[in-house]
Structure formats: structure tokens, C-alpha cells
Automatic annotation (TrEMBL):
<feature type="signal peptide">
    <location>
        <begin position="1"/>
        <end position="26"/>
    </location>
</feature>
<dbReference type="InterPro" id="IPR001139">
    <property type="entry name" value="Glyco_hydro_30"/>
</dbReference>
<keyword id="KW-0326">Glycosidase</keyword>
<dbReference type="Pfam" id="PF17189">
    <property type="entry name" value="Glyco_hydro_30C"/>
</dbReference>
<keyword id="KW-0378">Hydrolase</keyword>
<feature type="domain" description="Glycosyl hydrolase family 30 beta sandwich">
    <location>
        <begin position="431"/>
        <end position="491"/>
    </location>
</feature>
<protein>
    <submittedName>
        <fullName>Glycoside hydrolase family 30 protein</fullName>
    </submittedName>
</protein>
<dbReference type="GO" id="GO:0004348">
    <property type="term" value="F:glucosylceramidase activity"/>
</dbReference>
<dbReference type="InterPro" id="IPR033453">
    <property type="entry name" value="Glyco_hydro_30_TIM-barrel"/>
</dbReference>
<dbReference type="InterPro" id="IPR017853">
    <property type="entry name" value="GH"/>
</dbReference>
<dbReference type="Pfam" id="PF02055">
    <property type="entry name" value="Glyco_hydro_30"/>
</dbReference>
<dbReference type="InterPro" id="IPR033452">
    <property type="entry name" value="GH30_C"/>
</dbReference>
<dbReference type="GO" id="GO:0016020">
    <property type="term" value="C:membrane"/>
</dbReference>
<keyword id="KW-0732">Signal</keyword>
<dbReference type="InterPro" id="IPR013780">
    <property type="entry name" value="Glyco_hydro_b"/>
</dbReference>
<dbReference type="GO" id="GO:0006680">
    <property type="term" value="P:glucosylceramide catabolic process"/>
</dbReference>
<comment type="similarity">
    <text>Belongs to the glycosyl hydrolase 30 family.</text>
</comment>
């Protein structure tokens, strides 16, 4: 696997200089349509494919030469890219290093530990550039814990000693292997139990007003202690899943409660601590209620000034409904100066018989394409590593990860999700701009990003049972391509 991916890397198109003309500074850079007028040579496109019922896993499957495009017909399938129209700036793609991921990694032989880090964070792997972690425990921890003694409102006993055993060493390895450039942020699952007036952190509850300041100070302490360990923090989300009373660590905030905590406590506390450069992400929950949360917080100028943007998960389809990316587009229209970040997603209901279930990977590809096309700037998976039970998880909420470890055998198991994510993270680099991309049929979905070196990566996905031939039209140039059934492709060109 490593050799295969390395060969792909060596064949990536050499950098070229991009000339751009960006018009009007009056509109926010992240959201406006830019006239790029890209000087693409468009000589050749390289095609990288991952496909069901084949051996193709991030495999180079062909090269095609561009030619003058003909008028496409209605009975043909086409993908259209207009590199002269660009949108949001790409922040990165990554996953979460939880207590579970770190403890499983620590149980592996050294050569497998090295392989896991290389698979995610290096040029030979899929080049993750984002990292999420938790503020004290989550369900993917061995047990509930905090960084203070129970009842310590003044945080005099604050210590991250627990994290120094497994989590921080793994995070340091990941950051070092990525070249020291890994955008890292953290999320709490619950305040300490006494701050909610409860006996434990499980099953919801709400932060009591008398502890608002103490809890805001807790974020500052966390950032200070992690940065002392050489782990720079880009920012935080206020609360993981603030409208879900989970069987694990959880805490409920109404939109108004989250707004008021941000504007009266967390934002000002960051300012006073000299942390105005730390980014604060609101919501951090599903796409179903996301517009209401954005409306309440972003319509309040005193709260909005502290919010970098809004985070979201993909679990709204627990009701049997559709994925609600359309709500993201509404937020971009309503609040064009705010960013959208995908903060968590995983395939629930772990079953070791289904490590290679192809639809798990397709769920990633479909969500990533549709999220990016609605203005999302970054995308963060959940646990980067779990064991052969889908854990450990102290409330038995067992899930899939892109890579699993069978610790009893000292083996790593790569799932389709790893390769689907890699079609984005390996070829799109932070700072890239999404460029206009559409398809003529719903049988294909697609998105494109132009990297700062001028190279372009277009991702095309086919969830149907049939191979599909398509015209790939970039500006006034085209190639003819084919994507297998249940496959994802990255087309690389300059």
C-alpha cells in the first residue's frame, strides 16, 4: 500500500505559476466569486481511481490528453469545470486523535505505529492537515475524567497529566510527521459534573450560570497547558453536540445560552488572556438545526464578533431523512463572512464483518463533495484509529474508523473510507481555492480545487452500479474519461 501511494505522489504534476486577478476587496475573500482568469496549459490529465470489486486503491489508472472541446450533447454525461470562477479557501482535512485512538496506537508494535502515522500524515500517505482532540474525556475515553478535582471552581488543581500518557505523545508524532504544520483544535463533551449540578458528566444537563466564568477559564487553561507541550492550538468549539442528551458526556445549550456564553464569557476571557488569535467555532452539531443556531448567534453583533464560524456533523439522517447540505448554502448566503467547518463524522454501528463495506467509503465521498460545494472550508473525520471492537468506548458506542487495528495480531486494517478521504486530502493542499464544477447528470457528483501552485484536482464520484463514460470539460478543452461503478476518481492537471 505504502509503495503504491508513493508512486502516485512521484507522478503528481509539477508545480506551475498561477496568475490571478482578484477583483473587489469590498466582499469577504472567503465567500465571493473571484475572477481568476487562470493560465492553465491543459496538456494532460492524470486519473487516480479507487473502485469497488477491483484492486484500485488510490491507483493511477490513466492519462489523457486535452483537446479542443466540442459542444456536448444531451445524451452524454459531462463534468464541467470553469477555473475562472473560484470560491472559498480550503483549510484542510483531517481526523481526531482521541483517547481511544492514542491508546490503541500505543498497543501496536513500533513498525505499525510508524506505518499508521505515515499513512495519515506524510507525503507517502494521505497528508492530513487538520487535527481535532477533546477537552478531557469523551465517550471514546476509558472512563469519564476532568483536569481538576471535583468542586474546584477556581481551577487550582488543573492538570493535563492524564493526556501525557497516550494522547499527547501521539499528537506530537502526528504534528512532527506532517512537517510541523497541523491545524489543531479541541472540543469539550461536557463541563465537570459539579458545574452542571449533576453527579456525573453523562446524559446531558446544562452549565449553571454561576460557573460560566470558571468554565471559560477552563478553555484558557487547556490551551496554555497544551501549548506548553509544544502543541499549538488553532482554536476550540464551544460544545460538542449541544442539543443531544447522550448516554455519554454531554451538555445542552440552547442557541441563546450558547450565544450569551460566547459573548459574555468565552470571547472576553480569550481577549483578556491574550488569546484573541484563537478561533471559536459555534454549534458543532448536525446540519438539521444549524441555520437556527447561526441566525441566533450571528445576528447578535456582540456574539458574532467572537465567532470564526460554525461547525457541523453529518448525523442528521438518524431520522431516516436526507443529508441536509442545503442548509450550509443558506448560511453562506445569510452570513458570507462566516466559515463552515465539518467537525465530525463516522460510520456508526461497528461490525468487524463489514470492515470493507463499500457504502461506508461512499458516505464519506458524497458528504465531502456536497459539503465543499456548499462552502465548507475544512473537513474533520472522527477517530483516526480504533481497535477490532470499534472502541474502546466506555459506554459501548462502538463505531468504524478509516483504519482499525487488530491489537491481538498487531495488524492494521485499511477500510474504503481511508481511500475515499485520501482522494481529497492527498491532492488538495491548504490555501487551495474551490473552483466552479458541475455535472450534467445526477449519476455523477464532482468538486474541484486549484492549489496555490496552479495544479487542479477534480474529484468525480459514481455511486451507481454501472461504469459511466463522461466528457471532462475544463474551459474550452476536454478529455473523454470513464469511471467504474461504485468508484471515486481524482483528476490532476495544470
Amino acid at each position: 500500500m505504502k509503495k503504491q501511494i508513493s508512486n502516485i505522489l512521484k507522478a503528481i504534476i509539477a508545480p506551475v505559476i498561477l496568475t490571478a486577478c482578484v477583483q473587489s476587496n469590498a466582499v469577504n475573500e472567503e465567500t465571493k466569486v473571484e475572477e481568476v482568469k487562470t493560465a492553465l496549459a491543459l496538456k494532460e490529465v492524470k486519473i487516480v481511481t479507487t473502485a469497488s470489486n477491483t484492486k484500485h486503491r488510490l491507483s493511477e489508472t490513466g492519462k489523457e490528453t486535452f483537446q479542443k472541446a466540442n459542444q456536448p450533447r444531451e445524451d452524454e454525461v459531462s463534468v464541467f469545470v470553469n477555473p475562472n470562477k473560484s470560491f472559498q479557501t480550503f483549510m484542510g482535512i483531517g481526523g481526531a486523535i482521541t483517547d481511544a485512538s492514542a491508546e490503541v496506537w500505543a498497543k501496536l508494535p513500533k513498525d505499525k505505529q510508524d506505518e499508521l502515522i505515515k499513512a495519515y500524515y506524510t507525503e507517502d500517505g494521505i497528508k492530513y492537515s487538520l487535527l481535532r482532540t477533546t477537552i478531557h474525556s469523551s465517550d471514546f475515553s476509558p472512563y469519564s475524567y476532568t483536569y481538576i478535582e471535583e468542586g474546584d471552581k477556581d481551577l487550582k488543581t488543573f492538570s493535563i497529566k492524564h493526556d501525557l500518557e497516550y494522547r499527547i505523545p501521539m499528537m506530537k508524532r502526528a504534528i512532527a510527521s506532517s512537517g510541523g504544520q497541523l491545524t489543531t483544535y479541541a472540543s469539550p463533551w461536557s463541563p465537570p459534573a459539579f458545574m452542571k449540578g449533576k453527579k456525573d458528566m453523562l446524559k446531558g444537563g446544562t452549565l449553571q450560570p454561576e460557573f460560566y466564568q470558571s468554565w471559560a477559564n477552563y478553555y484558557v487553561k487547556f490551551i496554555e497547558e497544551y501549548e506548553k507541550q509544544g502543541i499549538p492550538m488553532w482554536g476550540v468549539t464551544i460544545q460538542n453536540e449541544p442539543m443531544a442528551t447522550q448516554t455519554w458526556e454531554s451538555c445542552i445549550y440552547t442557541a441563546e445560552q450558547e450565544r450569551d456564553f460566547l459573548k459574555n464569557y468565552l470571547g472576553p476571557t480569550f481577549e483578556k488572556a491574550g488569546m484573541s488569535d484563537k478561533n471559536i467555532v459555534v454549534w458543532d452539531h448536525n446540519r438539521d438545526l444549524i441555520s437556527q443556531r447561526a441566525n441566533v448567534i450571528f445576528e447578535d453583533p456582540e456574539a458574532s464578533k467572537y465567532a470564526w464560524g460554525i461547525g457541523m456533523h453529518w448525523y442528521e439522517n438518524w431520522t431516516g431523512g436526507e443529508e441536509m447540505q442545503r442548509n450550509l448554502g443558506n448560511i453562506k448566503e445569510s452570513f458570507p463572512d462566516k466559515n463552515i467547518l465539518f467537525t465530525e463524522g463516522c460510520q456508526e454501528g461497528f461490525d468487524a464483518k463489514h470492515y470493507q463495506r463499500w457504502s461506508n467509503g461512499e458516505r464519506y465521498g458524497r458528504n465531502m463533495i456536497n459539503d465543499f460545494n456548499q462552502g465548507t472550508v475544512g473537513w474533520t473525520d472522527w477517530n483516526i484509529l480504533l481497535d477490532q471492537t470499534g472502541g474502546p468506548n466506555h459506554v459501548n458506542n462502538l463505531c468504524f474508523a478509516p483504519i482499525h487495528a487488530d491489537v491481538s495480531k498487531g495488524e492494521l486494517i485499511y477500510t474504503p473510507s481511508y481511500y475515499y478521504i485520501g482522494h481529497f486530502s492527498k491532492f488538495i493542499t491548504p490555501g487551495a481555492k474551490r473552483v466552479s464544477t458541475t455535472t450534467s447528470r445526477s449519476t455523477l457528483i464532482s468538486t474541484s480545487f486549484q492549489n496555490e501552485d496552479g495544479s487542479v484536482a477534480t474529484i468525480v464520484m459514481n455511486e451507481t452500479d454501472e461504469n459511466i463514460k463522461y466528457n471532462f470539460i475544463v474551459g474550452d478543452q476536454e478529455v473523454h474519461a470513464e469511471i467504474p461503478a461504485h468508484a471515486i476518481q481524482t483528476l490532476l492537471y495544470k
